[in-house]
Amino acid sequence: MAPYETEDSQGSGQSAVRRKAVRYAVPVTVVGVAAAAIGLVPALADSGDPDLPKVTARELIEKIAASDTEQLSGTVKIHTDLGLPSLGGAASSFGGGAAGKGSSSADPKEKLTELASGTHTLRVAADGQDRQKLSVLDDASEYSVIHNGDDLWAYDSASDEAYHATADGKGDKNDKDDKAEKGRRGSGAPATPKELTDRILKASGDHTSITVDGTAQVAGRDAYRLQIKPKQSGSTVGAVTVAVDAKTGTPLKFTLTPASGGAAVVDAGFTSVDFGRPAASTFDFKPAKGTKVTEADDLPAQDRPGKGHEEFEGVQGLDGLTTIGEGWTSVAELKLPKEAAGLASGAGSADLPADASKFLSSLGDRVKGDFGSGTVYSTRLVNVLVTEDGTVYAGAVTKDALVKAADAG
Q1: For a Cys-Cys bond, which of 120, 133, 135, 350 suits 125, CB 3.0-4.6 Å?
Q2: Cβ 146 vs Cβ 152: under 8 Å
Q3: pLDDT tens digit string along 384-393?
Q4: Contact residues for 286 (Cβ-Cβ < 8 A; gap 6+)
Q5: For the whole model, what pTM was predicted?
Q6: CA dist., res. 228 & res. 213, Å (int)
Q7: What are phi and psi of 128, to 5 degrees?
Q8: 148 closest CA partner among 288, 40, 284
């Protein structure tokens, strides 16, 4: 099937606020795909080329927007290759592992970061906004996060530990709904394939080509392939491809390929899917006798998932956040606190062991420009420049584009 490209979405009626949001949202959304939403994006292998009625990109976007899928279950396979360096045993230089005093190996905040690299198989189920379950399957163990009404449970079979948190039972229904929605969105990262796709489409603006790039079969279902590509040079994003279920409009597969070529940075989707309502027992959980249970309320406030989401609405301890440039090549600029500036820029810190400081410096490339000097830390998708005065520039842009933005800033 031949591609169909959308018309430019310029339009004189677009408000200044929307234009500002569009400039910033594209790279931030892409970063969110790679860094924050990895564990919840529902299948690697697609096949076939079903003969489906031709649709335009605009019609397919409308189909996604109209999708009302709230019940589903299935198996997900996700492969992530950000090109992050392996820390190996270097973590010991920083004084031990990431788990804090009183924390649990079942804490979702700690466990789900493992999905940021490698290949993983997950089992997912959802029944509206009040019931979801995600299980990470390993050869000899299983890790599950279960949301059922006011309860959030996480269970790690390898350590036989469970983590439990409850929603705040105070306030009227509208207040609870607002808090639930705010908590669900957390830091603003998309939580489902549909949210992720919607954000990218809304942020595409005049800097993006959106086409229907043929058809495919994903998890045994006929699907259209929606391809989203930057028109600008300097972006590290090559293309985003979303396989959209031809019947329901539900995104089934999400693939992000880098401009540098090679394997996808994120390739995630269903290998099997059922749009029927999962059994209510799917979301039941009761720890067995002998299981170690950690209650969120017994932990320090900053370690409680679901608590204090307001802190994510503004970056605490940072001196403002501005953007440089437009669209896919826009760069976020912010200021680090004084105590973190030297360490992050590779200049070192008196509080850090020499070996650890040397290791951190080896992860980045020293650069100079009109902005001064600093260190660039790179992945296959995101580059981050930290200057010696503590200014941070970050975006899904090449290193040269990042330095150019820092010079302009």
Answers
A1: 133
A2: yes
A3: 998 888 889 9
A4: none
A5: 0.72
A6: 10
A7: 75, -165
A8: 284
* Measured CA angle at 120 (ends 114, 126), to 5 deg: 95
Element (H, E) at 323: strand 321-324
Report which of 126, 389, 164 is spatially closest to residue 292, judged by C-alpha positions.
164
Residue by residue, DSSP assigns 113-157 as: GGGGSEEEEEEEEEESSSEEEEEEE-SS-EEEEEEETTEEEEEET
Paired tokens of 296: 């969120």
Q: Kindly report, residue by residue over 276-335, the tens digit of the pLDDT.
A: 999 999 999 999 999 999 998 876 655 555 443 333 333 344 456 888 988 899 999 988
Burial of 76 per CB tally in 10 Å (0-12, 13-18, 19+): buried
Q: Which residues contact 208 (CB under 8 A, 6 or more apart)?
A: 26, 228, 229, 230, 231, 327, 328
CATH superfamily of 16-313: Lipoprotein localisation LolA/LolB/LppX (2.50.20.10)
Sheet containing 372-378: give its strands across: 321-324, 331-335, 391-395, 383-387, 372-378, 365-369
Provide the CB-side half-sphere exposure for 374 (13 A, CA): 26
For residue 137, give both structure tokens.
């399957």
Tell me the C-alpha distance between 204 and 199, whole Å.
9
- Helix 193-202, helix 57-66: angle, nearest 10: 130
Domain boundaries, the chain: 16-313, 321-408
- Amino acid symbol at 118: G
Q: Which two tokens stand for residue 17?
A: 């606020």
